[in-house]
Amino acid sequence: MRVSPFALFLGVVFAYLVTLQPINDSDLFWHVETGRLTLAGDLPRVEVFSWTARGEPVFTDQWLGDLVLAVARAAAGWPGILALRALAVFALVALVVDAAMSARPRAPIVAAAAALPAILLSRFAWTDRPELLGLVCFALMIRLLRGGDRELLFAIPLLFVWAQLHGSYALGLGLILASCAARAIEEKPERWRFVPIASFAVLATLLGPSGLDAWTSSGGHFLAPPRFIAEEGAPDARTLPGAFFLITLALVIATASLGRRATLRETLVLVPVALVALTATRHTPLLAIAAVPFFASRWPDPIAGLRDRSPAAPEANLGRTRAFLIALLAFLPIAVLDAHVDESTYPRAALAAVPEGAGVFNQYDWGGWLLYAKPSTPVFIDGRLFPYVPDVLADYRAIVGAHPGWESVVARHGVKAMLVRPSDPIAVRATERGWRVAFRDAIAVVLIR
Amino acid sequence: MRATTLSAFLFAFLAAALAMLQAPADSDMFWHLEQGDWTISHGMVLTTDMWSFTRAGATYNTGAWLGDVVMSTAYGPQLVTGTFSGTDSSGLGWLGLDILRAVLVGFAAFFTARITLRVQPHLGWAAVPVLGTILVSRMVWGDRPQLFTLALFPLVLDLLFAWRLEGRTRALVALPFVFVLWANLHNAFVIGLVAVAIFAIDAWLEGERRMRVPALATLVACVVATQLNPAGGGAVARAAAYGALLPGWIVEDRALDVLSGAGLVFATLLLAAIAAAMLRGREGIAARLGAPLLWPGLIAPFTVLALAIQRETPYACMVLAPFVAAMVPDAIGRPRIVAPVVPRVIGLAIVVVLAVALALEAALAAPREPDLGAYPVGAVPLLGSLQGRPHLLNEYDWGGYLIRYAPTYPTFIDGRGEAVFVPDVLSEFQRVVALAPGYRDVLKKWDIALVLLRPDRPLVGALREDGWRVLGEDARWVMLSRP
């Protein structure tokens, strides 16, 4: 698969641009900690970071994603994490733009326009999580599924790796099965050859350490997304990602209705992705990425007349251009050299007042960060969510919202201190109920019973 | 009579029969009835708040004076004000609202079916999207003026399709009259104007030359017609501001969750439309339906609207239904059929039978009482027994109920939210019930001495702990009095 120089160029541009974005994702820290344990040969299969769910079974479906993050951190510290993000964004943008370029090889303006929704929407997922690696796999899968038999076979090892990186692989499996079905219908002779391909694809998802449990995590997120988490909410036009998504969806409708007819394979890839994208904000980039070749192959070229008169660049020159563009990535270490965690939204100043050991109730968004910043204090809850569903999560919400009966929940758990936001109802109410304020600033309050 | 017309009557009957069985329960119904009563008894539109103590005297306009009057008329004159005694009307009472709802829902279903059957005479293919649309429309079957929008939007679409697809220019003449009515019944008439504008743009870009002038003239006439209401041009401005603000503090105005029941039906229709459009492309759509620019012109904006504001979902389904009904069978190679004709006498006889069946249902099975399961019914006598009239902090959803059944207690807030209480009072309400910082300042500012809230509100737990006296409670409500 030869990637177009234009795609590589945009990939390099965005790889450097993304290094300007701070490291501050709240989930990064628990991913790195989980990966660190795996790196040490101790893949966590039960909960070890919290004091409320300790010993409960946990999903291992992202073990490779966690491991990659931990290796990057161990190898080069936070610059390693930033470099990993930059490389992932490079790959994602290059794949997306290349998908457009392969659909319209000599129309870079159309290709760039077609890739723009995918870049704009995926930009909200350019964070330091396995989810970003999952998006790269998805973009590559879309590229492969547009190819022939050889590409379809390559999709199976990709699916295997993807299934170890991130739970979004389930969509990849669905798309392979849909592609096989579409091709079996369209290519009537030898249609049975798709049966073993589909079977191997299913098998590839079961070969990780999670086995069948890997499907539970993906299914849970798809069928019952935890709506109280912003990124799991329904796509909302009041937010920038939601607005971009609705524009993308409108473009899909317009292109489908006004363009030339699509193949069954194109339809069976795009429509299921649209369904998944409709379910939650975090899934919205998927539609934009899947729609790139569809847009590119159907949108009109405003400079078609000029384009037809200009000669195509010789392939030898393109090879040197590709090499030059990829070589530009060698300077990435300079861009990430001073990478550090941006703790402006975290309660760093409050940490000294937080007691060590079990018994500290913490804000959900700070749980992952606490694992990194104060490992001697196990968390009440963190962004992994599943170990805490339903009981611990319900108790968390009762306490942080100061719901009627919150004091009995506190007593049942034996909470001795709280690290919460000043705007949390519990910060107001616990103070009124006699909890001592051990620390307070604009970000956090530490309350001691 | 064409079989498609008869089928549309059948769908209308089904929808109306279903709607008739729903007991009145909408939280905004009560204040709409009060506004209607006031308008009828005073002969003028109510524009000053007289029911809350937080915005007393403020001017406002909910843009639905005629809708309120029609609802109030359907209910009939109220006999006793201030006490709930079941049937408190000398007219039809709650049955009147049941009948009004059934008529409007049936009207909506009839025209939704007519639009769909216009392009897909095969009853089987048309039934799926039409029934889906009827089911989705249940989300707006609450007894409010929005029922008029539910009924009038498909009527407008039907007239526009009759003109665009069948060349019946005379259908356009009715539109300005519809908009005069609609602009006074409910302020969501703007979505109808959007539909007219889309048809006009399509006609200008792709229609035959002879269609352009009627299209433009109709659009202008409809816009002018919507000025004929007490607020004049302010009605359009208010509706536009609502669309621009995208209020998200009421559940029904939030983004659509496609994993909900209505969301799933909508998503199915939408994805079926996308799949069919992809498989047939522009040429296939032009060959099967005509007006290839019109369909994405309608589907895209109404889809976006539905996903942004979930209560608009039924209107997106009304746009999707004919496209799905026609294009899905076309995409899978099903042949087209021509609608059979039913002898007029038989057709009329069936319609009469359906009407009689509805009348029988109204007489025998329609609810005579509202469903007050969500309201603090037991709190009303308690309020009446209290000395003085201390300021009451009430649940948002119960404000309208209190306006009707405890009118001597002004509300803190009620369902007229956007028109009266946004942003200040709503923000204070949200802060105080959630125990956000400064909640005590709100209690103090408004001198709240009485609280009527759901038991799970954080404020309830806090006030109990602070020694507020429990005057009464059950599983749904609790009333606390300041010590």
Protein described:
The complex is a heterodimer of chains A (449) and B (483). Helices cover 59% and strands 4% of the residues of chain A. Chain A is mainly α and 449 residues long. Chain A folds into two domains: 328 residues, no CATH class; 101 residues, no CATH class. Chain A has a four-stranded mixed sheet with strand order 1-2-4-3, covered by helices on one side. In chain A, strand 3 and strand 4 form a beta hairpin. In chain A, helix 5 runs parallel beside helix 12. The N and C termini of chain A lie far apart (62 Å). Chain B has 20 helices and four strands. In chain B, strands 1-2-4-3 form a four-stranded mixed sheet, covered by helices on one side. In chain B, a hairpin with a 4-residue loop joins strand 3 and strand 4. In chain B, helix 1 packs parallel to helix 5, helix 6 runs parallel beside helix 8 and helix 18 crosses helix 19. The relative contact order of chain B is 0.13. The chains are: A mainly alpha (449), B mainly alpha (483). The interface between A and B is large, with 47 and 49 residues.
Task: Write a concise synopsis of the structure shown.
Chain A is mostly helical and 449 residues long. Chain A folds into 2 domains: 5-332, no CATH class; 348-448, no CATH class. Chain A contains 19 helices and 4 strands.
How large, in whole angstroms, is the Cα Rg of chain B? 24 Å
Instruction: Figure out the total of helices of chain A.
Output: 19
Overall form of chain B: elongated
Measured by DSSP, the beta-strand proportion of chain A falls in under 5%
How many helices of chain B does DSSP assign?
Answer: 20
* Order of strands in the sheet with most strands of chain B: 1-2-4-3
Arithmetic mean of pLDDT of chain B: 93
- Helical content band of chain A: 55-70%
Q: Give the H and E element order of chain A.
A: HHHHHHHHHHHHHHHEHHHEHEE
Total count of domains of chain A: 2
Largest interface: A-B, 47 and 49 residues
N/C terminus separation of chain A: 62 Å
Low-confidence stretches of chain A: none
Structural class of chain B: mainly alpha
Sheet-strand content of chain B, in percent, reads under 5%
How would a textbook summarize the main sheet of chain B?
Answer: 4 strands, mixed
Number of strands of chain B: 4
Number of strands of chain A: 4
Approximate shape of chain A: globular
Tell me the number of structural domains of chain B: 2
